[in-house]
Amino acid sequence: MKHGDKDLFVKEGRLRSFGRTSSRLTQKDQQKLDDKLKPYLLTAQQAKEFKPQSKLVVEIGMGNGACLAQRAKNEPETQFIGCEVYKNGLNALVNTLTEQNSQNFHICHDDARDLLENLPPQCADELVVLYPDPWPKNKQKKRRIVNTELLNLANRLLKDDGVLFIATDIPDYMMWILREVYNHDTFFPIATKPTEWATAPDWWLSTKYEQKAIKQGRSPWYMTFKRGVDKSNTKCAPLTT
Ligand SMILES: C[S@@+](CC[C@H](N)C(=O)[O-])C[C@H]1O[C@@H](n2cnc3c(N)ncnc32)[C@H](O)[C@@H]1O
After folding, report:
1. H/E element holding 118?
2. pLDDT at residue 70, as a whole number
3. pTM for the full predicted model
4. Considering the domain 2-233 in this protein, what is its CATH number?
């Protein structure tokens, strides 16, 4: 959303880490979607007052949110916050949440970095980023959401033994993530065997982006990092072939 030259979705001084925020919605459809979203909405502003009473999982850039919605159904005692700036995918998500009568799901339709900044410190058990926008061109790479700023925010958000989970299908982004995480020095990988980087977690539901990547011949890496400092596994690198 733009107002003159100003990007209303992105705080000044921050680069936009995403593409479009909506497409081809008539005013009537937009209104309909806004009404449906209302019961689930948690704004980045409201996050300041959010006090989870149980385990909390936060996802950044959830797309249509199918994976997180499945978790919300299977883990009714856990609270979920799914963040996504692209509005269109949220329609199907709200239908699913309503169908499964999920009371443990919040949707944040703001820049995820604002959400993370405003949630209380050390309130989350997991932070999940499934297939962040790859920004493949050299001049675009500065837009990649996994960077020092995000790791600082993750370090603030997660509890002592909290987990940062990232999936990607782009070899160059996988290496980028490893470099960022190792340099940051507050998260360590839990993989003990190289094959674990290619094994989806128990709660996995293949996402829309992953399906597209597999169809196009790319393979996923599933990267689980724990908050804390333990370098014992740093030699267990992911398989790259
Ligand atoms: C490549 S898509 C992957 C979507 C979904 N996770 C999947 O696997 O199908 C990345 C998504 O992240 C969203 N995104 C990127 N930066 C974001 C940010 N700062 N806050 C919220 N969403 C963001 C984009 O709008 C996009 O939908």
Report:
1. helix 112-118
2. 98
3. 0.94
4. 3.40.50.150
